[in-house]
């Protein structure tokens, strides 16, 4: 039975055809782009490809989907034209390109694909044409007519003046002794040429561009009876030196040579692999302030990071760049490599002065500006490129610059410039102490911070970490940008000036005359010990005005019943710490009373139960206080009838409050409060 089932399965698969049994080979990026071009051109007939032509040039590109819609190459506009796909030709009177090109030998195929100059130079040699017309299997990377025409006159003269040696060798270097189609052209591979077995470097990029010694493959896979022809946009030459050897030869790399030697990177640049070196010239080093340059050159680790930031992990020829892309360096950072017309750009800057110097283990582009990674910078240097210059200037004025420029392992909490739009604090002892509490005694990374973690500052304070759904905060200040990790220090950009906790919640309330009535109420309700002990509380603290705004009947009931008073006050206390930066669209915070508070934030205004918070983020060692101008009512509470007289317990609370608040705050009060003052005089 089992055998019958297997036989039926095989029979079914055969009936469905090969596609059902075996997946077809994956198409190469070049083939995918060619397929897309053919798809875009099908309305013009069979085997028609859409081609993007750079306006004002003869450069053409098979288009991918993104380029098709953008209609740009290196930021320059293109026009769409339609032509026969490689390997096909038109037939008079018929639509599209229905006929396959007739197969002929390599020599004749050169004329068909637009490389008649290569054909002409082949004729001048004694040996090459018979090989191209005879039996065998070859691949030729044939320069276009424009490629030959663009050669410097002295180079072309040296070739044609000795056709049976120089020209013959040059042409043989463009040939491989077997048929190689684009699906075999893998990124980073080397093909053995027919000139002294010298290598030809192949790079096949994800955007479909294929380069041969950094010459772009224009049209590929033109079959011949004795091989295949690929049309390329440059005349290529042999490559004999590795990257390190090229650095040693070029005079403009004198400083780079010394730096590479000091960092011990010689073995990397002369070893196997395929790298891109963005090689800073002597001029690039001279642009850096001498103090910065000497510091980096004298620090092996910073120097190694600097140089590794100039080495890309793969070979990147200029012709492969048709739009911006992110590439990773050996240092681990990401550079944005792009182009603007004929110029290559790094991080948006056209700093490449010479491109595509090919080496056996990669390619070199000369750059005239150093790419200093964050990991080689001081905190001062990191801040110079961030939106925290005002804060850093305060540290400098306060005499704390050595902490930001030395070898001390610290993390700087630097508020954004916008925090100081209304001015900066005067530099005095208090300000210096506040700034010291913005410097943490360790070099941190935000991704390793956790909720409840304690951090120690140079000012001696303990700061707490709060992790919320969409924010990471240290006390009242939340991190507003990605970390910048320097050589010794890390920069955390924050959304406000940090205020370290100063005592318990009760200490905070007692120290602020706005809360004198609340303090008296807390004491009367027996909650003083709760708000003094260790914990994590969020207190929405009604000000004196909030109590005074209550209808007399409600105030009388509230202050005359200790149990009810405690219930109301507990409703103002959340059971976790919630700073304003941790509040999203809506947070439901459980209170000590049991019901939940609805806390929201919009346009930098915090609301609790839809009532605005007058002042947020007064930090305490066991919580945070937010001042509010109304007394919150739990859901089950209902307003009661007003009374004209205050209970005796209420009177006692107001007597306690007088110790914390000045009488001037009670002037112009409603009759019930005037009566209270009269009674308090006796």
TrEMBL record:
The keyword Disulfide bond applies. Residues 45-99 form the EMI domain. GO terms for molecular function: cell adhesion molecule binding; collagen binding; extracellular matrix binding; identical protein binding. Its main location: secreted. InterPro entries: Adhesion/Biosynth-related, EMI_domain, FAS1_dom_sf, FAS1_domain, TGFBI/POSTN. GO terms for biological process: angiogenesis; cell adhesion; extracellular matrix organization. Residues 1-23 form the signal peptide. Plays a role in cell adhesion. May play a role in cell-collagen interactions. This is Transforming growth factor-beta-induced protein ig-h3. It comes from Prolemur simus. Coiled coil: none annotated. Binds to type I, II, and IV collagens. Keywords: Cell adhesion, Disulfide bond, Extracellular matrix, Gamma-carboxyglutamic acid, Phosphoprotein, Repeat, Secreted, Signal. Residues 103-236, 240-371, 375-498, 502-632 form the FAS1 domain. It is found in: Secreted, Extracellular space, Extracellular matrix. GO terms for cellular component: extracellular matrix; extracellular space; trans-Golgi network.
């Amino acid at each position: 039975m089992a055998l019958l089932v297997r036989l039926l399965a095989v029979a079914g698969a055969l009936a469905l055809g090969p596609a059902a049994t075996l997946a077809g080979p994956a198409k190469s990026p070049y083939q995918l782009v060619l397929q897309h071009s053919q798809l875009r051109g099908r309305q013009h007939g069979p085997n028609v490809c859409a081609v993007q032509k750079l306006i004002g040039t003869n450069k053409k590109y098979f288009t991918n989907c993104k380029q098709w819609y953008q209609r740009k190459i290196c930021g320059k506009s293109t026009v769409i034209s339609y032509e026969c796909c490689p390997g096909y030709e038109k037939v008079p009177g018929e639509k599209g390109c229905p006929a396959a090109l007739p197969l002929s030998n390599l020599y004749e195929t050169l004329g068909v694909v637009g490389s008649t100059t290569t054909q002409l130079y082949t004729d001048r040699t004694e040996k090459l044409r018979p090989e191209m017309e005879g039996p065998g299997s070859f691949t030729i990377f044939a320069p276009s007519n424009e490629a030959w025409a663009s050669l410097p006159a002295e180079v072309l003269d040296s070739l044609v003046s000795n056709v049976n040696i120089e020209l013959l060798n040059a042409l043989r270097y463009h040939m491989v002794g077997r048929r190689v189609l684009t699906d075999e052209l893998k990124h980073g591979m080397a093909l053995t040429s027919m000139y002294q077995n010298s290598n030809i470097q192949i790079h096949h990029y994800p955007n479909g561009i294929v380069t041969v010694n950094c010459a772009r493959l224009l049209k590929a896979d033109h079959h011949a009876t004795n091989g295949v022809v690929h049309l390329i946009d440059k005349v290529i030459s042999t490559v004999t030196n590795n990257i390190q050897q090229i650095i040693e030869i070029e005079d403009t790399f004198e400083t780079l040579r010394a730096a590479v030697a000091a960092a011990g990177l010689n073995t990397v640049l002369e070893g196997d692999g395929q790298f891109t070196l963005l090689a800073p010239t002597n001029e690039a080093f001279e642009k850096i302030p001498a103090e910065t340059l000497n510091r980096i050159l004298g620090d092996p680790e910073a120097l190694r990071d600097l140089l590794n930031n100039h080495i890309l992990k793969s070979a990147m020829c200029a012709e492969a760049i048709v739009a911006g892309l992110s590439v990773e360096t050996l240092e681990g950072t990401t550079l944005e490599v792009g182009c603007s017309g004929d110029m290559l750009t790094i991080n948006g800057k056209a700093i490449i002065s010479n491109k595509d110097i090919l080496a056996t283990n990669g390619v070199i582009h000369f750059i005239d500006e150093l790419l200093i990674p964050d990991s080689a910078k001081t905190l001062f240097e990191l801040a110079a490129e961030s939106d925290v210059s005002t804060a850093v200037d305060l540290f400098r004025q306060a005499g704390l610059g050595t902490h930001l420029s030395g070898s001390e392992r610290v993390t700087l909490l630097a508020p954004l410039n916008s925090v100081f739009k209304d001015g900066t604090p005067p530099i005095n002892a208090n300000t210096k102490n506040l700034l010291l509490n913005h410097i943490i005694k360790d070099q941190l990374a935000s991704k390793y911070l956790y909720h409840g973690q304690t951090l120690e500052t140079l000012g001696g304070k303990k700061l707490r970490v709060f992790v919320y759904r969409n924010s990471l905060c240290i006390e009242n200040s939340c991190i507003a940008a990605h970390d910048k990790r320097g050589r010794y220090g890390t920069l955390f950009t924050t959304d406000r000036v940090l205020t370290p906790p100063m005592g318990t919640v009760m200490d905070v309330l007692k120290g602020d005359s706005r809360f004198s009535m609340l303090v008296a109420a807390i004491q009367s309700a027996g909650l003083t010990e709760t708000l003094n002990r260790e914990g994590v509380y969020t207190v929405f603290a009604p000000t004196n005005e909030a109590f005074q705004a209550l209808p007399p009947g409600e105030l009388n009931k509230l202050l005359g019943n200790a149990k009810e008073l405690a219930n109301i006050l507990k409703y103002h206390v959340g059971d976790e710490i919630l700073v304003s930066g941790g509040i999203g669209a809506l947070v439901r915070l459980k209170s000590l009373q049991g019901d939940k508070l609805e806390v929201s934030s919009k346009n930098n205004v915090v609301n609790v139960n839809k009532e605005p918070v007058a002042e947020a983020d007064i930090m305490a060692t066991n919580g945070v206080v937010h001042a509010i101008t109304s007394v919150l009512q739990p859901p089950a509470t209902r307003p009661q009838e007003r009374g004209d007289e205050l209970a005796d317990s209420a009177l006692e609370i107001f007597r306690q409050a007088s110790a914390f608040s000045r009488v001037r705050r009670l002037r112009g009060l409603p009759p019930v409060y005037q009566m209270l003052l009269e009674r308090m005089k006796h």
